[in-house]
Amino acid sequence: MRSALAACLLVTMNGFAAEPALRFSIADSWAMPMVQIERGQPTQGILHDMMASLATQVGSPARFHVLARARVQAAMDHKEIDIRCYAAQSWLPNQSSDYIWSIPLFVQRDLLVSREPHAAQVIPQNLPPQPVGTVLGYAYPSLQPLFDSHQLTRDDARNQDQVLQKLWAGRYRYAVSNQWTLDWFNQTLPPNQQLHSVAILQEQAVGCVIRNDPALPVQRVLRTLLRMKMLGEIDDIIGLYTGHRPTESAPQHYEAP
């Protein structure tokens, strides 16, 4: 009798066992407000907070793997991580059915940024030959023809914050930045020293991609991300770090699983 009761208790305890961790990738080239990395682990930021909240709502602990951006896809392919966020299908055009995409969660807006305000939008094709601040390993499709012709040359830094620091210090006249990082950077400066967006180079809807593995709560993750977006939680997190909630909406071509 006692052994039967112990067996029953063991089954019950196993039923309440903690879910396995959800393993998220963190690109080491990200900077605030996307993520703050300290001693090899993320501690705060838009993507950190969103991933941590997602894992909590799914009922799994979050585990973060900080990787070089070029290694993220290989880590996914080798099942070292489960979820990659802040990615676009156009960036990963050859994904197989081993992966499932979330709804679009953010809009990444790439900007041409200058220390000086401009009365009109800058047309990159009309710029004289000069270096432009860029992030190492990042692709800039709208500027690539100008890089190929050597009209513009890349001046690479390790992350987006370093790019803007070099622009502010006068290392070059223009740099490329996403809207979030520019807003975050300008919050630390008085109005007369802030950097200025002088052209919109590209807008891209981005979301999360998860490995289609039976061992993972794939549908729960997708439904949770949908709920977080529709209820405004993700936009609230963005507003917390950038000073304002997004005014644009990522396209929502999606059917709930």
3D architecture notes:
This protein has 257 residues and is of the alpha/beta class. The protein folds into two domains: 20-107 and 205-242, D-Maltodextrin-Binding Protein, domain 2; 108-203, Periplasmic binding protein-like II (D-Maltodextrin-Binding Protein, domain 2), CATH 3.40.190. The chain has helices spanning 2-15, 46-58, 72-77, 144-148, 160-168, 179-186, 218-230, 233-242; strands at residues 22-27, 36-38, 41-44, 62-67, 83-87, 99-101, 106-114, 130-135, 152-157, 174-178, 196-211. The strands form three sheets. Strands 5, 6, 7, 8, 9, 10 and 11 form a seven-stranded mixed beta sheet that branches. α2 (46-58) packs across α7. The model is unreliable at 1-17 and 250-257 (pLDDT under 50). Belongs to the bacterial solute-binding protein 3 family. Residues 1-17 form the signal peptide. This is Amino acid ABC transporter substrate-binding protein. It comes from Pseudomonas chlororaphis.
